[in-house]
Amino acid sequence: MSLYDNLFELLPLGRGGVALPNRIVMGPMTLNQATDSGHITPWIVEWYRRRAAGGVGTLIGAAVFVAQNGRGWRNAVGIADDSYIEGWQACVEAAHENGALFGTQLFHGGAASRVSLLGHQPLSASDWAREGFDPARAMTAAEIEQAIEDFEEGARRSIAAGCDFVELHGAHGYLLHQFWRGDVNHRTDKWGEPTAFPVAVTRAVREVIGPDVPLIYRFSIHADDPAAPNQPVTPDSLSEFLRVLEAAGVDVWDISCWHESRRGYFGSDILLPDWVRRFSDKPRIVAGNLLTPPETSAYLAQGHAEATALARALIADAEWVNKARKDKADEIRAFEPSHMSALKEGTDPGA
Which end of the chain is more exposed for a tag (fewer CB within 10 A), N or C? Predict the structure, then answer.
């Protein structure tokens, strides 16, 4: 028995008999340790291996660009052609050897990029300049169709690498999110309907991964700032978003609350995952600054989520889960801002 037994229960995902081994997911984190071309390095494989050995039940490879024109930053990981498959196979094997599941988070940065990285102007739903990045231009209809195919091919390569599931990155102001956001997407063609592009990508990915592989969708209301207003999303538009994406093939919601998982939404005290539960019965993975076993266990016990995605907690201590299982939460290394600096320099602060 553990003080935090609810963290160590299986979580069936409702498809193909796949179940999370426990309720702790290593949330997708950008490590910036890939090669210049975005291929996996031994450093990345060992990062995943340590967290799987440390007891994490499920690992998600973060922000995996599906096309060269979707890169968001240097030394990010990719899956833009078949040459990337071998590296992801190594990551999957590192997880499986330690009893963990592994999947890729398929990503296109859209307007969240720079000319100096891409060699051309970034792309988005409409002409839009995201703060901190170069101005993006509206995609042509042909470019949108190509992006859908790029996500589909990324999913095919993920399955070829042995992934247990696939996740779509529809949060934080990246391309899928840009199409959903009414303050960004001003198109007058069929892609101006906010859910049209996310639904098309989801359907294409579901088709290629087949009926037995779980499909997770990460979304957020805001882009990066937890103090940002909820508009243009409303409870009604959130309900419609969840409904049409589930019909397209989504099995699990990965809900990003940025750094505040206890923030109320839509002018209420109701948490975002609790709004989701009003409209959906799918499992919810929630990310939002949960750092310790007591608060993580309590969050699940209070019914806000079925699983939690830890990021900074697992940067600080790769053995977080094993220590929680052994009721040694007081031995867990606490996250410090210096850990991010160490990570950028290529040091694993949680080792």
Answer: N
Distance between CA 208 and CA 163 in Å, rounded?
13
- 175-230 per-position pLDDT tens digit: 999 999 988 999 999 999 999 999 999 999 999 999 999 999 999 987 555 566 66
Catalytic hit among 4, 174, 265, 299: 174
Read off the pLDDT of residues 130-186 as tens digits, 9 standing for 90 and up.
Answer: 999 999 999 999 999 999 999 999 999 999 999 999 999 999 999 999 999 988 999
CA 56/CA 7 separation, integer angstroms: 10
Domains delineated in the chain:
5-344 (3.20.20.70)
Q: Tell me if 252 sits within 8 A of 286, measured CB to CB.
A: no
Give the relative orientation of helices 141-160 and 85-96 as an angle to the nearest 10 degrees.
40
CA angle 20, 24, 27 (to 5 degrees): 100
Render pLDDT for 234-290 as a digit per residue (tens, 0 to 9): 899 999 999 999 999 999 999 998 778 888 888 899 999 999 999 999 999 999 889
> Are residues 282 and 14 in contact, defined by beta-carbon separation less than 8 angstroms?
yes
This prediction has a pTM of 0.97
Residue 77 CA to residue 109 CA, distance in Å, equals: 12
Is 265 annotated in the active site?
no
Closest CA to 90 of 99, 102, 78: 102
Distance separating alpha carbons of residues 18 and 289, to the nearest angstrom: 27
Q: What pLDDT does 260 receive?
A: 81
Q: What is the DSSP string of 27-47?
A: -------S-TT----HHHHHH
Which of 48, 54, 50 is CA-nearest to residue 33? 48
* Strand spans (E) along the chain: 11-12, 19-20, 24-26, 58-65, 101-107, 123-124, 137-138, 165-170, 215-219, 252-256, 284-287, 307-310
Q: What mean pLDDT is reported for the chain?
A: 95
**Cα(130)–Cα(150) distance, integer angstroms:** 23
